Each structure stands twice: as structure tokens, then as C-alpha cells.
Amino acid sequence: MNPPFRKIIHIDMDAFYASVEQHDHPELRGKPLAVGGSQRRGVVAAASYEARNYGVRSAMPGARAAEKCPHLIFVKPRFDRYKEISNQIRQIFYDYTDLVEPLSLDEAFLDVTENKKGLPSATLIAEEIRRRIHQETGLTASAGISINKFLAKVASDINKPNGQKLIAPDEVILFLEELKIEKFFGVGAVTARKMKSLGIFNGRDLKEKDLLFLTRNFGKSGLHYHRIVRGEQNSPVRPNRVRKSIGAERTFSESVFGRDIDGELNRIFEIWVNRIAQNSARGKTVTLKYRYDDFETHTRSSTAPNYISTREELGEQVDQILESTAIERPVRLLGLTLSQLEPKASGREGTQLTLEF
Ligand SMILES: [Mg+2]
Question: What is the pTM of this model?
Fold first, then answer.
């Protein structure tokens, strides 16, 4: 039986690239910072909140940004690091649902109507996910919760940064009526200007226009606008990638060494084993990742002859790796991953796989 409403969460990391840089380089914290853009023709890929206070925005030419904020610090992007964290947060999402649709490295939709934890409240799930993202990566995220992707996406912006917003089913209609036209997801600056020239300033104005009027003025998008303003956007959350590994890793705000490494590794192991069990996954290759203070990163792998999944089998592989690995200095990141996963024969993932190939 389908419940009357879907429960959709949109998670969005706060000033993602800039926050990663400030997290990894404590000397940059509290300072106006732009990732990218230092080249003559470069543009800002992301700005820290301190830089935004000066009017620096992403997609702004670096020269313009430097004008607005003369002491702006430009940092080169490190996409490998952003991808790593992106993967880390996705592993958290998968603890709740397989219906995860990433929009970019730092944003995703989750359909938690039926979730793996059997939790009835999407609000609590969003809180839990944000708390865990912070624990495991040291970064903050914002969330929007509502009945469809459009509303969840709009909502996640409202209490940003480090906040969340629910638009409950009975609030949807009023919320949409009062929403400024430029806040509608999919309405860019040009469309917003056109809408205003037609007397459409908010959802209420938009709703008063009939479908014919909207399609005449906006083509195919007219139907989209006609629907979203009535809360009728119901495109499903599409898990658009096949999962290749199941991992658990943790970035520490203060590096750990010696016995503390064993303790942290045990905790990560527990989370990891549970994840693998919860997903009924089996795989062959176990990888330990550790990163020293100076970002030097090592991975050590061990591959089993057959698919493995139990705590004992996984533990055995980890022990084997540890026996031949010397972690010599304090580390700031530890992680365990199971890859070379057994292809799933049935279920949603399997269906997707058949369609894609
Ligand atoms: Mg973001």
C-alpha cells in the first residue's frame, strides 16, 4: 500500500568546498576564503561564509571577488578530497535508504518513506543524518524535508547553514502560495524577470495563471510550473548510480595515535560490519585507509578468494592487513571499505543494472 505522501529529504552540505578547506587547514578557519578563481580567468567555485559577507559568490570571476574582498584567500580545489567526503556522507545516507539521488558532490535527495531503520519521522532522520555527518566528517549540512523533491530542495535553503526545515503536508499549499517566484527551484534569473513582467511575483500569482497561459509563455516548462505550484511534482528519487563499495571512515578533528588508533578502528569496524549486514552485501576486497597529519594517505588491501560478509571473515582480513602495516605517526583519518561487491541478482538495484547495460 502506498502511503499518501512520500517523505523526501534534501541534504546539502554548507559551503562545501570552502568548509572542507577550513576543516583540513585550521589556519583558514574564520577567514574569507575562495576555492578556485585565483587565475586571471578563473571563477570562484565556492566561497566561505566569511567571504560571502563581502559579497563573494560562487561562479564570480576571481578578479571581481578580489575587488570585493581585498584580503580574500584563494585556495586550489582538491576534488579528490571532496569526492572522498562525498562518498563518506553517501555511506551514511545508505544506512537509511537505498533511494539516494545525488545532485552533485554535496547534495542529494533521499526518499525515506520506507527506511531501513523503520523510523516514522523524516525530521528525526534528517537530524540524525546531520549529526552523523558532523561526527564523521567534522562538517555541517542543512536539510529540507517535505513531500516531494522540489519542496525539499527549497526547504533546505531556509535554515542554512547547519539547520533544517520541514514543510509538512498541510503547510504545502500556503508555503507555495507565499513563495517568491525567484525561489522556485528551476526558475533562474531570466525566467524570474519574465514572470515578474507578467505580473507573477509569488506562488499565488503563478497559481492564478492557467496552463494555456503558462505554456504559451514558457513552452514545456509551463506545465512544470503549473504542477509545482500545486505541490504536484512527484518525480521519484532515482538512485542513479550502482554502489561499488561499502565503507565506514572517520575524519578526526584532532589526530590520534597509538592505542587510540585501535579504539577508533574498532568503532569504525562495528559501523562497517553493520552496514554490510544491513545491505546483505558480500564482497572480496577489504581496504584500510589511513591519513597522516600532513595528508600523506595510505591504503592497504587484502582480497579474499571468495565473497565474504561475516564479522569473522571481515575481521580476519582486517587483522591480516594490520599485521603487515605499521602506522607510524598520528592519523587524522581512518577508514575501512569492502569492494568487489557481489552483483545483486534481484531487487531494485538489480533491475537498474539490467536497464543500464
Ligand atoms: Mg551545498
Answer: 0.86
Closest-CA residue to 268 (of 289, 254, 253, 282): 289
CA angle 310, 338, 306 (to 5 degrees): 60
d(C-alpha 232, C-alpha 246), whole Å: 35
pLDDT tens-digit readout, 339-348: 999 987 644 4
- For ligand 1, the distance from its centroid to the CA atom of residue 104, given in whole angstroms, is 9
Q: What mean pLDDT is predicted for residues 212-236?
A: 92
Give 236 Cα–ligand 1 centroid separation in angstroms. 21
Confirm or reject CATH 3.30.70.270 for domain 1-164, answering yes or no: yes
Which residue spans of the chain are classified as CATH 1.10.150.20?
A: 170-228
CATH 3.30.1490.100 fits 245-339, yes or no: yes
Cβ neighbours of 288 (radius 10 Å): 22
CA of residue 164 to ligand 1 center, whole Å: 13
Strands across the sheet with 245-256, in order?
A: 245-256, 331-341, 283-292, 297-308
Residues of the chain with CATH 3.30.70.270: 1-164
Task: Give catalytic status of residue 107 as yes or no.
Answer: yes
**Average confidence (pLDDT) over 327-332:** 94
pLDDT digits (tens, 9 = 90+) for 19-41: 999 999 999 999 999 999 877 67
Ligand 1 center to 140 CA (angstroms): 10
The share of the chain scoring above pLDDT 70, in percent, equals 95
The boundaries of every CATH 3.30.1490.100 domain in the chain are 245-339
Ligand 1: centre distance to CA 106 (Å): 5
Instruction: Pick the catalytic residue from 27, 50, 67, 107.
Output: 107
16 CA distance to ligand 1 middle (Å): 5
User: What mean pLDDT, rounded, does the chain reach?
Assistant: 92
Contact 319, 287 (CB under 8 A): no
pLDDT at 77 over 80: yes
Query: Does the structural domain 170-228 have CATH classification 1.10.150.20?
Result: yes
